[in-house]
Amino acid sequence: MAQQQRAIRTRRMILEAAAATFDELGYDGASTTEILSRSGLTRGALYHHFPSKEAIAAALVAAQDEALVIPTHTVKLQGVIDLTAEYAFRLQTDSVLRAGVRLTVEQTSFSQPKIAPYQGAANVIGSLLRGAQERGELLPGVRPQEVTEFIVGAFTGIQLLSQVYDNRRDLLHRVSAMWRFLLPGIAVPGLVPHLDTDIERRCAVNARARQDAEAAPGATPEATPEPAAARPAGTGASEPVAAASRRREPVKAD
Amino acid sequence: MAQQQRAIRTRRMILEAAAATFDELGYDGASTTEILSRSGLTRGALYHHFPSKEAIAAALVAAQDEALVIPTHTVKLQGVIDLTAEYAFRLQTDSVLRAGVRLTVEQTSFSQPKIAPYQGAANVIGSLLRGAQERGELLPGVRPQEVTEFIVGAFTGIQLLSQVYDNRRDLLHRVSAMWRFLLPGIAVPGLVPHLDTDIERRCAVNARARQDAEAAPGATPEATPEPAAARPAGTGASEPVAAASRRREPVKAD
Fold it and tell me: PROSITE patterns of this UniProt entry (chains A, B) (predicted)?
């Protein structure tokens, strides 16, 4: 294993151990000793990557931005739907992302500014929605900035409720419902029937494509799956979503 | 002061001191000794009302249901809008309600089942939305249960974002935006223009009416403002909202 790959893997092991520790003991109740014991690494390996518990928490919070896979779909509103779908799917499958979201939502002695992670999502969604407005996808009078803040807030609460009620198993269904209710209030009527809000079906396609890629000859455990941090936005995991979208009828705003 | 009124006031003082203590130190960092010192009460007075810190936290969580003022508006969708408006206004002004919401959203050593407070809101909103469906206010195919869970989730996240960005000062504006975006996706088109989503204006009317009531001759500090817990749902604070609504044009679903 190349040295860089080993470093990425060690860092990921620390983040996963920290995510599990914070989940069980809470941030304030957790210690680097406990995180070390779960990771099976030496204290030297830990301190090579992170000087403190606070630094690990900061990395977990920052990992939320790495999960913002920017879609390349021509229809910008479809791009925002795809972004939330991918993010919801990762929340279901990635304990490191879940830990970052929890550190953001909760008030602990970890005193990072709490706006940054919301702002990361707001920047990406806001940019897509301004594109949607320029392409004539939004209803007149609908302000991209206001819709952006609504989506970020609503998604934050929806994933929280899905966690409490169903350990996030029904999250894709809840995000799909959000879009069905929301689109008539923000999108031009001619576009709404062409937007694909069936997130559960698409994520299933997505997951199968990932499995196929991992099972393909030449795929080695070191090479796939890559950690999310090493995957450039708009490639990798987002490809199956984009491919599934391309198979649909072409859509355009009228 | 009658004995019962004094007991209600003492209980409220404990809850307010606990709300401030949890806010500063977090639930896990707070102690009954610290809560006592902030309330200025004796330990005997505290234990008369609450046997433990856990019991105080449970009362704070339960106070969320007391803030669910069920509106009596004929148009049920207007009732749901009014309910969220009143709840948002109370979040801005009531530290006890804010503490209950935080204990619900965050994962601490306080191990109450976390579904109950969401379920209280879901029951009230669900009942109103089933009424809306019976009255023909909802679009065909829109399921009251699904809309209910969306509103509870979205509201939870929106108040969280408003807290982080603006200490909840912009909460009424954010809730108003939620309704403007959401209504075209759930309400019959003829009803949408008749629904009043200008929550900021109505809450200002509401607040002025409360101030007038407090300044009115005969109002004593003991009698007004009543603690939220002592006020039956559908009366008291909800009256000005209902009165403001009645001054509008009559609306009906078509």
Answer: HTH_TETR_1 (PS01081), HTH_TETR_2 (PS50977)
